[in-house]
Amino acid sequence: MATFKQLPAVMNLAFKAGDAVSPTVDFDTSLTGLTVSAQVYSLVDRRKIYDIPVVVSNATSGVVTMSISSSLTTQTPAGSYGWQMQWSSPLRTVMAGTVDVIG
How much is the pTM? Predict the structure, then answer.
């Protein structure tokens, strides 16, 4: 019996509130023509807490940088959250995990 799985890669984030965080991800595939977005959300009710600013640093190579400013991390109460990154055309969640914010 064949099995098909299309699950997002897992990357967990942890940082101190008030710190700027800029993780870079290399998908090793072209992202030319795709729109990439990311969000932090509540693990309780999946309510979006904020959008993570994402820059496609190198579309041909598939390099993406998330830029979570110190003002965003300051506004996030200490605790655990979820996050996900998606790209368009077609919509696909390509990366997800937890976010632990330390007060």
Answer: 0.89
Give the 3-state secondary structure of residue 70: helix
Alpha-carbon span 58 to 16, nearest angstrom: 28
C-alpha–C-alpha distance, residues 95 and 45, integer Å: 20
Which range marks the domain in which residue 66 is found?
A: 18-102
Which CATH number goes with the domain that contains 59? 2.60.40.10
In a domain, 84, yes or no: yes
pLDDT digit string, tens, across residues 37-77? 999 999 999 999 999 999 999 999 999 999 999 999 999 99
On whether the CB atoms of residues 80 and 43 are closer than 8 A, the answer is yes
Q: d(Cα 49, Cα 43) in Å, to the nearest integer?
A: 10
Closest to 101 in 3D by CA, of 10, 9, 12, 8: 12
What is the chain's length? Answer: 103
